[in-house]
Amino acid sequence: MEFAATILILTCTYALLAAGVVILYKAGRVVNFAHGEIAVLGGYVFYSSGMVTGNSLWFAIFGATVFSIIVGIFVYMAIMRRVVGEPFYVAILLTIGLGVVFKSAIIVIWRATEVTIDFGVQPAIRLAGGATLSYMDVATVILTIVFFAALYIFFRFTHLGIQFRGTAENPLLASQRGVNVNFVLSLAWVIAVFAASLAGVLYGGRAFLSSESVTIGLAGLTAALVGGLDSLRGAVVGSFIVALAQYLTVRLISPVLSDALPFIIVLVVMSVRPWGLLGTLEELDRV
Amino acid sequence: MSKSNLLEVRQLEVVYHRVATAIQGVSLDVPDGAIVALVGTNGAGKTTTLRAISGFLPSEDVEITDGDVRFCGTRINGRLPDQLARRGIILVPERDKVFATLSAEDNLGFAGRRDGPITRARVLKYFPRLAERARHLAGYLSGGEKQMLAIGMALLCRPKLLLVDELSLGLAPIVVDDLMERLKRINQELGLSILLVEQNANAALAIANYGYVMESGRVVFYGSAAELRSHPDVQEFYLGGASHEAVKSYRDIKQYRRKRRWWG
Amino acid sequence: MAHRGSNLRISYLEGNKILPRPYQKVLVAIVVTGALLLPAASSTFFVHLIDLCFLAATGALGLTILTGFCGQISLGHAAFLAIGAFTTVIFSVHLKFPFLLVLPIAAVAGAIIGFVVGLPSLRFRGVYLAISTLAMHYAIVFLATSYQANFGTSASAGITIRDPNVFGFVMQGDTAWYYFLFIFLSLVTVACLNLGRTRPGRAWMAIRDRDIAAEALGVSLARYKLLAFMVSSTIASVSGSLMAYYTNVVTVERYTLDLAILYVAMIIVGGMGSVLGSILGAFFITLLPYAINSLFEFLPSSLRFSTTVFGVQVGAIGLCVILFLVFEPKGLAELWRRIETYFDRWPFRYRPLEATRR
């Protein structure tokens, strides 16, 4: 039971990150290597603001929203927008540079101290089989489910969501039909940063945050790759696979491999199905 | 700015990738409520002209280096496509004209403008087939249906000027005729001005009021549709030969034997 | 009379020359003389800095072959450096081989590993290739970590390497290393320049620009991609080996993903695809942290936290990458070319053809 709970929570964390990666890829064909840094930065920002206003989960969501609007719009409008249309590697290298800058911000502003986000003493939940779930664990799962449900409704049923999907497929045609492409791409970044910072805050609440935590971003990236860079469903599936494999490897083989393992999974999956388990084949030549 | 020209293009020059001049010195007018045809062979610069009128995305590395495009009297050079779309200039592109991953009804509702003289019901009256295929993914529609969907989508964007690029490509002649006929009806009933780019000059000149002929990036001839239809050079090079003379042998219509002279 | 510009060539033969104009030869002579005289006129610390720059430059040249010439995005450069370092450990510490034998062995080890790491490039392109190089990085680091863990109790701070002994001359001290590294860097630079202007270089650039077209023209993708990986990792491996000898210590913690990103930053800042750029970029990125450190000297010591300084150093590198990618994608090499051309064309103004100024 504890095994299932751990896997579930890890899957949710990775799924939130992978969702952001997939959205950014679908919207702008950008593979964001800075996702982990954004997540951890979001966590740290919440930590600081929480010290002032008191930590509550609702404030976390509100704070993540504000953070993601500011950072998402800034990153897109000031930086990523300028390299639209250039070869794919420019955007990748740019996100790598961004990741370095965000990481340095963490080091400079918070002296890279380890922080744990304290949401106050909350009841733990006992499950059958003797496992205990903390408040944060449950919050993680619920928030992830709510987030994905909201995404589904947004993309499937709202007008803006449909315009978003159209812009992702063909930005030129969308623009010719009156859609402001810059707005849609900024929105993509806002959503992705929101998901990442939510993941960061939750992770900081369950475990701790430090400048080294940014490696979870790479796990999220690999989860997205395994599932298919253009599939949100794939993000969930990929996260589950990566979480499961990581857990088993750490428990049964060697803890040192836990960093490397997501990449080994990616290598294996890519050797047989490079476009990911649920991705579309045509996307392969886009990068 | 003369009488009631909806669109005035003067001496337009467009350069791709900062080195390749696609069109030069192109001038044309679209009077309010008229159908204007722009004909010419492949690579003549017709699509570039339409794209220049309807706007380029910054990522495409294209630039209007000279000339003016005036819409309702305002100079609109270099604006983004969505800005021009909101002014009422709507392009139906040649390729990728619908969102293949969205359903037909999502495509129609894409622009989301509820106000305007053309309602969704009206569009479905022009193209009833779309109502039948509403739930299907646009990518799976037939060529003719895609074209209908593309025009329908464009009509729902509150267009003042409809630019149609290569309507007939890949479609059976009977479908082409049908679509042209519907375009004519739309023009007459809604008063919508249309600029029609076509390789199939016959079909285009059948419904147009005026026509321009483009070659190698320049306008080489213009006039009313009737004038174009009766011009011997246009007939020979674009309409499949002089209709009033019996063609004696293949040698008579070999184009390379005769230089195109566009004066007189 | 056609006045040939510095970077404006009017014939293919001329375009293939490394230094077509007399003034360029003079410049190079001045730089070389200056470099040879430098140790006499500077502090040991400064010579040490330049030594680090030389080492970084050789590593950067290795990455330029792979990413700059051949266009294969690689995030695994730190792993290649690690291969060189650990090969040095195995052969110099365990087997007590002499320096002059260890270097070629490191080169061979690099070539073999380069071949292995290059195999995914036959199947993947773009971001998928970058991910596979990341995977290789972690795999190699894992092996190195296990090796170091098994090494013994003394390895907690790293494995010690003794100074190399070349025919009785013990290479220690920054100045001796300085001349050795300078000569080594010069050799590698000339090698890379020559590779760039002969068949492999042309093939690589064709692959970089349009690999499908290159293949259609008869360039064997498999052979040249693997060759790029092998040459790159050979150079990097030797560089890593020299770094091990220079610093006298090898520890696996040094070979992080951040180190790979550092080398990528070097070639971005210097200018992707340019040999001169790699050297300029290596110097820039290596010296930047020290420059920032000096800047901090001006601030009151209350602000001079080591983590803050470190953070700013890291951030500056990231910021440089972003700024160069957005505003000057061809890097420092392009800046140099512009200066060159300005003086060359003077008093005429020179506006580069719009299309080439991407």
State the helicity of chain C in percent bands: over 70%
Overall mean pLDDT of chain C stands at: 87
What structural class do helix, strand and pairing data of chain A support? mainly alpha
Largest sheet entry of chain C: 2 strands, antiparallel
Low-confidence stretches of chain C are: 1-5
Taking all Cα atoms into account, the compactness measure Rg of chain A is 18 Å
Q: Main beta sheet of chain A, described?
A: 2 strands, antiparallel
Helical segment count of chain A: 11
Number of distinct beta strands of chain C: 4
* Overall helicity of chain A: over 70%
Query: Could you tell me the number of beta strands of chain A?
Result: 2
Shape of chain C: globular
* Relative strand content of chain C: under 5%
In terms of structural class, how would the helical and strand content of chain C be classed? mainly alpha
Uncertain segments of chain A: none
What percentage of the residues of chain A does DSSP assign to strands (E)?
A: under 5%
* Silhouette of chain A: globular
CA-CA gap between termini of chain C? 30 Å
List strands and helices in order, with pairings.
The complex is a heterotrimer of chains A (287), B (264) and C (358).
Chain A: H1 2-28, H2 35-53, H3 57-79, H4 88-110, E1 125-126, E2 132-133, H5 135-157, H6 159-169, H7 171-176, H8 181-206, H9 215-227, H10 232-252, H11 261-272
Antiparallel strand pairs in A: 1-2
Chain B: E1 5-16, E2 20-31, E3 35-40, H1 46-54, E4 62-71, E5 74-75, H2 81-87, E6 89-92, H3 104-108, H4 120-126, H5 128-132, H6 143-155, E7 161-165, H7 173-190, E8 193-198, H8 201-207, E9 210-215, E10 218-224, H9 225-230, H10 232-238
Parallel strand pairs in B: 3-8, 3-9, 6-7, 7-8
Antiparallel strand pairs in B: 1-2, 1-4, 4-5, 9-10
Chain C: H1 12-15, H2 22-41, H3 44-69, H4 77-94, H5 99-118, H6 126-149, E1 159-160, E2 165-166, E3 169-170, H7 174-197, H8 199-216, H9 221-247, E4 249-250, H10 257-270, H11 275-297, H12 306-327, H13 331-345
Antiparallel strand pairs in C: 1-4, 2-3
Helix pairs in contact in C: 3-7, 3-8, 3-9, 3-10, 3-11, 4-5, 4-6, 4-9, 5-9, 7-8, 8-9, 10-11, 10-12, 10-13, 11-12, 11-13
Task: Please give a structural write-up.
The complex is a heterotrimer of chains A (287), B (264) and C (358). Chain A is 71% helix and 1% strand. Chain A has helices spanning 2-28, 35-53, 57-79, 88-110, 135-157, 159-169, 171-176, 181-206, 215-227, 232-252, 261-272, and strands at residues 125-126, 132-133. In chain A, strands 1-2 form a two-stranded antiparallel ribbon. In chain A, a hairpin with a 5-residue loop joins strand 1 and strand 2 (132-133). In chain A, helix 9 crosses helix 10 (232-252). Chain A is globular. In chain B, strand 9 (210-215) and strand 10 (218-224) form a beta hairpin. The relative contact order of chain B is 0.17. Chain B has a 6-stranded mixed sheet, sandwiched between helices. Chain B has a 4-stranded antiparallel sheet with strand order 2-1-4-5, covered by helices on one side. Chain B has 2 domains: 1-88 and 161-183 and 191-264, Rossmann fold; 94-158, no CATH class. Chain B has 10 helices and 10 strands. Chain C starts with 11 loop residues before the first helix and ends in a 13-residue tail after the last helix. Chain C is mainly alpha-helical and 358 residues long. Chain C is globular. A two-stranded antiparallel ribbon of chain C has the order 1-4. A two-stranded antiparallel sheet of chain C has the order 2-3. Classes of the chains: A mainly alpha (287), B alpha/beta (264), C mainly alpha (358). Chains in contact: A-B, A-C, B-C. Chain A binds chain C through residues 31, 79, 82-83, 86, 88-90, 92-94, 96-108, 111-112, 218, 221-222, 225, 256-257, 259-260, 263-264, 266-267, 270-271, 274, 284, 287, and chain C through 71, 73, 120, 123-128, 130-132, 134-135, 138-139, 141-142, 145-146, 258, 261, 264-265, 268, 305, 307-308, 310-322, 325-326, 329.
